[in-house]
């Protein structure tokens, strides 16, 4: 759904901008360029708002009429898209493929009072909802179990790497001995009969197959050093005990498996004993249940609740929406601080984009304008967008950390939060600050020499900042689309990873068959920023309309191709299109900025007598701002409650998540004819929201089958010692190169989202 609605948003922008492009070019470009001019305007600047001379102020009526017309056109499209989104999302929510998933009928609750910190208490509390509760997963403090599970995974990775390295070494040494034997046999061909030579070569190969360890001496076996101190997460060169990697990894897996099995049995006893605890005598929510101090793994204040009916989950979610454990002021304090800090380098980028004005204003910078024209063009046209892109590259990392710090429990919630924060940064720094900085730099000489002409100078020079964004949009539309279709970087990285990291079957499978995903929290804001810039300048500098429409036409075909053939979205990260209504809200931001800027420019406009000449136009723009805000509130009030909730009128169409019956059609995943037993599916549902450390078995160690048969002996030895190993669908050729024919054995039947 997220992929579909992103592509639909691109199509929505094209449909919205196409008539705006044609009308604005036909009306506004002649109005601002024919028989009118202002000092300092040349090239593309003759098409901007500020090029209307003081004797032609009546032409601003065209800008006003089109501003009203374009606003109503955009608002109509926004309502149409919001209505379509709500319809499609509700269909998706009640669709059998989604409604039958456990995730569709499960609610995560946090801040659970101590009184309800048992599975039975939460079951009783929510049993009043339609259909009742099917299962409760109470989050517990698992203490050492997650660390044990991580140690086990690390040991499995080490064993896969060491075993594959051992097989490769054995294969290469076997080939070396075979070649040496062939050369020796060739030299002694005159002394021994051919039959004897054949028997000698065959007996050598057979002995190596029967005793493969003879191929690799102990000094050549994979080894590594342990950290010199136990608390260090890594080892140090020439320090620490040197151990055989295969033997160490096997022992580590066995030890962690035994420890996890013991801990899981204690956890099962704790869960069963908690259901027998007496309930507090009072019904007050803050009353406390007696705490069972004998429990090793105490419950925490969060739980997943799976309901029998989807409507019950939605009712529970809406009931709990008012019980937020954090304050919003604290959540946004760090974000506001970052916004203020980031203003300095972004303002510098905006100033660099207007390097000619800097040269005229500051004499010590005049040498820059004396450089060759190509160099000056690169400094003012290419360097600012590149610097801006580099600055914005580091923001998502920091903003994701802030979202996790404030307590976002899911990845989708983090991405939704990132979208709002990142868009705020983009609008303030990549747009507004750059616009103001570039406009003021252009007006500085006049402001210094004639302070009384500030309104006129600002009205004439602020629109000139659009040149930077024209370059920015062309750069994004042409170079971004071209690189997206060519995919040169992913192609090069594919072969580099395969050469450097393709040492085990699992790594080869991940490189060859793993698909890339999309970070919606950064992709959507970067796209909606272009829409905001275009709407803002659609009247002030109409040439931007055609460029953006063409760019989004290219974006539409690019992303449609990528989502069909290259990109994938895991079900766990699919929000059902919740990024789309946020993107529509961003369009309103563009409308507000456009209307405020136009109102300010109208109020600043002066005729040849230095008197305000467009006050009525400015007043009508203020009226338009009020109408837009009223429409915005009405739209949100009408469709807002329908975005995330299932109405009662559709609840009967939503099927409950049921355990597959014996006659149900079995699902196929990854490989042909790979089906899942009904009991396994039921077990997956029962453990859907349990910490993997509490339920997951040891990951199967996957090594390739070699030509010497060494891998089969290693698998037999490992399985006999209690380490699950397999050589299915993985092979190593005679040159020691690893290749795979399918997924790892422990992922073949994985049906989780």
Question: What secondary-structure arrangement, pairings included, does this model have?
Answer:
Blueprint: H1 2-33, H2 60-94, H3 96-99, E1 106-110, H4 119-126, E2 133-140, H5 145-187, H6 194-210, E3 223-225, E4 242-244, H7 245-274, E5 299-307, H8 310-320, H9 328-352, H10 355-361, H11 366-369, H12 373-393, H13 395-405, H14 411-449, H15 454-461, H16 466-486, H17 488-500, H18 505-513, H19 520-540, H20 543-565, H21 579-604, H22 615-639, H23 648-651, H24 678-686, H25 692-695, E6 701-702, H26 710-721, E7 725-726, E8 730-732, E9 738-740
Parallel strand pairs: 6-7
Antiparallel strand pairs: 1-5, 2-5, 3-4, 8-9
Domain 10TM putative phosphate transporter extracellular tail: 678-746
GO cellular component, one term: plasma membrane
Main location: membrane
Can you walk through the features of this model?
By secondary structure, the protein is mainly α. The protein has a domain at 2-99 and 325-649. The chain is built from 26 helices and 9 strands. Strands 1-5-2 form a 3-stranded antiparallel beta sheet, with helices on one face. The protein has a two-stranded antiparallel ribbon with strand order 3-4. It has a two-stranded parallel ribbon with strand order 6-7. α26 links the parallel β6 (701-702) and β7. The longest helix has 43 residues, at 145-187. The chain is globular and about 105 Å long. The model is unreliable at 196-200, 321-330 and 658-683 (pLDDT under 50). It is found in: Membrane. It is a multi-pass membrane protein. The chain crosses the membrane at residues 60-78, 332-353, 373-402, 423-448, 468-496, 543-562, 583-606, 618-635.
């Amino acid at each position: 759904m997220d992929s579909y609605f992103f592509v639909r948003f691109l199509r929505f922008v094209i449909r919205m901008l196409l008539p705006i492009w044609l009308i604005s070019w036909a009306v506004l470009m002649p109005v601002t360029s024919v028989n009118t001019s202002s000092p300092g305007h040349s090239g593309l600047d003759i098409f901007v708002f500020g090029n209307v001379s003081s004797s032609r102020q009546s032409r601003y009526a065209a800008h006003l009429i089109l501003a009203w017309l374009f606003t109503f056109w955009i608002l109509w499209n926004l309502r149409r898209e919001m209505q379509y989104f709500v319809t499609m999302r509700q269909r998706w929510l009640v669709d059998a493929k989604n409604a039958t998933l456990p995730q569709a009928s499960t609610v995560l609750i946090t801040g659970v009072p101590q009184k309800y910190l048992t599975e039975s208490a939460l079951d009783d509390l929510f049993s009043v909802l339609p259909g009742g509760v099917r299962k409760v997963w109470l989050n517990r403090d698992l203490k050492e179990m997650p660390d044990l599970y991580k140690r086990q995974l690390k040991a499995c990775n080490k064993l896969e790497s060491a075993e594959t390295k051992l097989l490769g070494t054995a294969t290469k040494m076997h080939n070396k001995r075979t070649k040496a034997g062939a050369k020796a046999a060739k030299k002694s061909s005159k002394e021994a009969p051919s039959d004897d030579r054949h028997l000698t070569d065959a007996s050598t190969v057979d002995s190596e197959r029967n005793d493969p360890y003879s191929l690799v001496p102990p000094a050549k076996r994979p080894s590594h050093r342990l950290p010199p101190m136990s608390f260090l997460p890594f080892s140090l060169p020439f320090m620490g005990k040197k151990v055989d990697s295969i033997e160490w990894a096997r022992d580590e897996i066995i030890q962690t498996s035994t420890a996890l099995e013991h801990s899981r049995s204690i956890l099962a006893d704790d869960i069963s004993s908690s259901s027998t605890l007496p309930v507090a005598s009072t019904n007050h929510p803050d009353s406390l249940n007696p705490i069972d101090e004998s429990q090793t793994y105490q419950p925490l204040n969060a739980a997943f609740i799976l309901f029998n009916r989807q409507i019950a989950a939605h009712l529970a979610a809406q009931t709990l929406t008012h019980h937020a454990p954090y304050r919003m002021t604290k959540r946004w304090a760090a974000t506001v601080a970052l916004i203020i800090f980031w203003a300095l380098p972004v303002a510098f980028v905006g100033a660099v984009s207007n390097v000619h004005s800097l040269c005229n204003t500051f004499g010590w910078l005049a040498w820059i304008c004396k450089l060759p024209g190509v160099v000056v063009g690169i400094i003012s046209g290419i360097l600012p967008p590149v610097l801006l892109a580099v600055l914005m590259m580091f923001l998502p990392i920091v903003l994701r950390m802030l979202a996790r710090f404030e307590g976002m429990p899911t990845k989708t919630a983090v991405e939704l939060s990132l979208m709002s924060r990142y868009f705020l940064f983009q609008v303030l720094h990549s747009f507004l600050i750059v616009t103001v900085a570039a406009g003021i730099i252009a007006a500085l000489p006049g402001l210094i020499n004639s302070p009384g002409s500030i309104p006129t100078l600002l009205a004439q020079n602020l629109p000139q900042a659009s040149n930077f964004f024209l370059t920015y949009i062309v750069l994004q539309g042409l170079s971004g689309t071209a690189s997206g279709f060519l995919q040169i970087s992913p192609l090069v990285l594919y072969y580099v990873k395969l050469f450097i990291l393709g040492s085990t079957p699992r790594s080869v499978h991940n490189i060859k068959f793993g698909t890339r995903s999309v970070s919606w929290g950064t992709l959507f804001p970067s796209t909606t920023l272009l829409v905001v810039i275009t709407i803002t300048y659609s009247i002030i500098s109409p040439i931007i309309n055609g460029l953006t429409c063409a760019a989004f036409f290219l974006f539409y075909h690019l992303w449609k191709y990528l989502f069909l053939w290259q990109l994938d979205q895991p079900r766990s990260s699919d929000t059902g299109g919740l990024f789309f209504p946020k993107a529509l809200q961003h369009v309103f931001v563009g409308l507000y900025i456009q209307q405020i800027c136009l109102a300010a420019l109208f109020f600043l406009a002066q005729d040849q007598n230095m008197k305000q000449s467009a006050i009525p136009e400015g007043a009508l723009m203020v009226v338009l701002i009020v109408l837009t805000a009223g429409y915005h509130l009405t739209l949100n009030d009408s469709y807002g409650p329908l975005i995330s909730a299932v109405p009662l009128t559709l609840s009967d169409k939503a099927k409950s998540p049921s355990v597959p019956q014996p006659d149900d059609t079995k699902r196929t995943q990854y490989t042909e004819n790979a089906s899942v037993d009904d009991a396994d599916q039921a077990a997956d549902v029962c453990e859907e929201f349990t910490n993997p450390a509490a339920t997951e078995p040891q990951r199967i160690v996957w090594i390739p089958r070699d030509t010497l048969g060494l891998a089969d002996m290693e698998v037999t030895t490992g399985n006999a010692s209690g380490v699950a190993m397999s050589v299915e669908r993985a092979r190593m050729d005679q040159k020691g190169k690893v290749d795979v024919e399918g997924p790892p054995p422990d992922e073949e039947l994985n049906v989780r989202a």
